[in-house]
Amino acid sequence: MTDLVPALLGAPRFLIEQSAGSAAYHRLRERVFVGEQGLFARTDRDERDDDPRTVVLEARGADGELLGGVRLGPADDGPDVGWWVGGRLAVDPAVRGAHRIGPALVAAACARAEQAGALRFDATVQVRHQRMFERLGWQPVRPVTVADRPHTLMRWPIGRIAALSAATKNPLGGLLAGMTPGGPGFVGDDGAPVPGSDLIAACDAILPSMVERDPDWAGWCAVLVNVNDLAAMGATPVGLLNAVGARDATAAARILGGLNRAARAYGVPVLGGHTQLGVPASLSATALGRTASPVPGGGGRPGQKVRLTADLGGGWRPGYHGRQWDSTSRRTPDELREMVGYVGKIRPAAAKDVSMAGIAGTLGMLAEASGCGAVLDVGSVPRPGVATVGDWLTCFPGFAMLTAGPCTPASAGPAVTADCGELVAGTGVRLRWPDGELTVAIDGGVTGLGAAT
User: If you classify domain 4-158 with CATH, what class do you get?
Assistant: First the structure.
């Protein structure tokens, strides 16, 4: 949301803008909540007004006069874990109803909370206003009492995680009907055991738009994602094949330059491949690794703890803020190899590397392959300080592994590990918040491939 948002009803009648909370807004709140409604004896101000993270959205008329306002911000005084609350929605009595200022402020607050990376947005609403919120798409949670008056706790449904899952993984079950990718016990896994050998094969393609816009990074990522796929199965990479399409030799050289740089950093020889010029940008790679006993993605069971091991160093890749985290290109070869050897050392019951579906979606895939559901403790997920919860749970995090079940402790190099949930009976993924509340992130399976057994 921009700082100045037009609210259109035919012609622009008011604008909604972000502020730190003007004196006029606080006077309006006192007029409404103290004088008019009698909810508070002297003042409606509280600790949220003193929190520097609190955001105020104000609706102002053409002459700049305040018509209404609402505040929102993190739910508690600890780290922002993506749980925001809204409140103190007030509209000048002289303009109530005519221009739908209240609903416009509520809609703007929802957009602003999601922009801040919130995955849960709550508000306690006076019972008489509940219908308005329901018409705007809010969902009632339960009755509550505020200032000795009946209210309803309501929640704005944020479908960011489910939407990512639907866009990247949901079609797989239908598309792969009749196939058993990975083979029995490894259906839908990150790599596939090659029958009659100790080889694991993995294959990934890079988005053509990324190859065109950032060819060196695309080349690096072609190695990164394949090595991660092998690492999730506890395999040691032994070689890589690639297929490159480019408009000319200069573009192909940039792609192959990034790929060769990554291959050297990870110690994976490029065995061969195919290069074609005079065509649209494209890049895919196939990697081979070895392990005598691959770790399945579907080896988890209800009751097992879930861990996330992630490299929090680095930062957002330029041009991909909130979508791609880059720590690996800054690591030494020894650091990279220690991280990708982690799953092979700890030997968990189940493991998956976090990729296109993000942390929450990938956990849903691990749970689905294991024939169960999962709960993710939002506040326990290791996260870089500069990343919002919404971005971190839905981005490609560079190096991140989800593991479940008993394991042997071992070093992950510069990556950090934390218990952050558990596998449970049922399906889908729920988020558990610091107050113990559970919200649905993914309702049901992610890929439609079912259990890997």
Answer: alpha beta
H helices, E strands: number in the chain:
12, 22
Cβ(144)–Cβ(151) below 8 Å: yes
Q: What distance in Å separates the CA atoms of residue 307 and residue 342, rounded to the nearest whole number?
A: 13
Going by C-beta distance under 8 Å and a sequence separation of 6 or more, which residues neighbour residue 88? 29, 33, 44, 69, 70, 71
pLDDT beneath 50, residues of the chain: 1-11
**Where exactly does CATH 3.90.650.10 map onto the chain?**
296-453
DSSP-derived pairing of the beta strands 270-277 and 236-246: parallel
pLDDT at 1: 40
Residue-wise pLDDT tens digits, 18-32: 987 789 999 999 999
**What would the two tokens of residue 327 be?**
């720590």
Q: Given this model, what pLDDT does residue 184 score? A: 87
CATH class in words for 190-294: alpha beta
What pLDDT score was predicted for residue 166? 94
Q: What is the pLDDT of residue 142?
A: 97
What pTM was computed for the model?
0.93
CATH superfamily of the domain spanning 296-453: PurM-like C-terminal domain (3.90.650.10)
DSSP calls for 179-196: --TT-TT-TT-SSEEPTT
Q: Bridge-partner residues for 42, per DSSP? A: none
